[in-house]
Amino acid sequence: MTQSTRLVSQVDTEIADFLASREPILAAVADELSAFTDFSRDLLSGGKRFRARFCIAGWQATSTHAEADEQRAVVTLAAALEVFHSAALVHDDIIDNSDTRRGMPAAHIRFAALHRDEHFVGSADAFGRASAILHGDLLLGWSDELVDGALDLLTDRDRARSTRAEFNRMRTEVTVGQYLDILEENAWPTVPDTETIRRAERVMTFKSAKYSVEAPLALGALIGGASAAQLESLRSFGLPLGLAFQLRDDVLGVFGDAAVTGKPAGDDLREGKRTVLVALARQGMSDSQRETFDDALGRPELDDAAVVELQRQIEVSGALESAERSISSYTANALDALRDADLDVDAVAELEQLARLLTERSS
């Protein structure tokens, strides 16, 4: 077992132990709160742990000592990133009206089912959404508790302050990036066609790319005492790879196999996501084609045949081919940033492997 594999396994243990430690706190308030830990445990048992892995890789790439407290700190911080990500997913599924997550019912759907099973009064759907908002808020708070726990382990307080500042910035960027995503779904008719790709790229950068790859790398590197040059190399790798990651996600959101992705095929089309893929598709259409496409996009009632037709229109427009070229280009730029970088050789090999996993995945 490699060190990185062992540390990711420790992240799983850290998350499990943390949730177990919060269970009696909730139970002391009310027995009915067990749903929060049960749903959290289910949600956090899945996923690919990419953010944790990048955090660990950033630390391995830059750390010069393997002190036990420093290693424990990076594991705890990686766990915090996974809990933060789960909070974002809970809220994202409410915003997007997504019914499934990782092949399971989304949190708001599970809370709605609880309402029905217990024969509560009022709207089950309203109960589900309200409860899931609070669930996401609770996970956000728990992620911050884990960050504090990680930073308390560091004897170098400058590193602790720099790491906290990076986490705070990441949290702000992904939150406003989510707002920009909502904005584009609603404001797109007022946006000139010449601006749609740039604005979609802005969403992609702040909602996903920086928080999925660049920030976790930087967080691990800051714990490891990275130099300014090392941090810059990791950021130069992380941002383009994060963009490639999100573009791959956009492609899977339209063309992915539901049995593999855990979400219904064409979900992004029903939600009306104004992604870079959609912006590229509209750019390659005539005015009449664009009007037909815009009229169908974002309709929750789209059946499978309508989804297939939209997929066809996107492919015929050349957008899918263009997105694949961009994924390859972003990935190449990311890997170029690792060449001659002052980083640990084994960690660089791990980053190269992660780059392939991120961009060649099918889910």
TrEMBL record:
Keywords: Magnesium, Metal-binding, Transferase. The keyword Metal-binding applies. PROSITE patterns: POLYPRENYL_SYNTHASE_1 (PS00723), POLYPRENYL_SYNTHASE_2 (PS00444). GO terms for biological process: isoprenoid biosynthetic process. GO terms for molecular function: metal ion binding; prenyltransferase activity. Its cofactor is Mg(2+). Belongs to the FPP/GGPP synthase family. This is Geranylgeranyl diphosphate synthase, type I. It comes from Agreia pratensis. The lineage of its organism: Bacteria, Bacillati, Actinomycetota, Actinomycetes, Micrococcales.
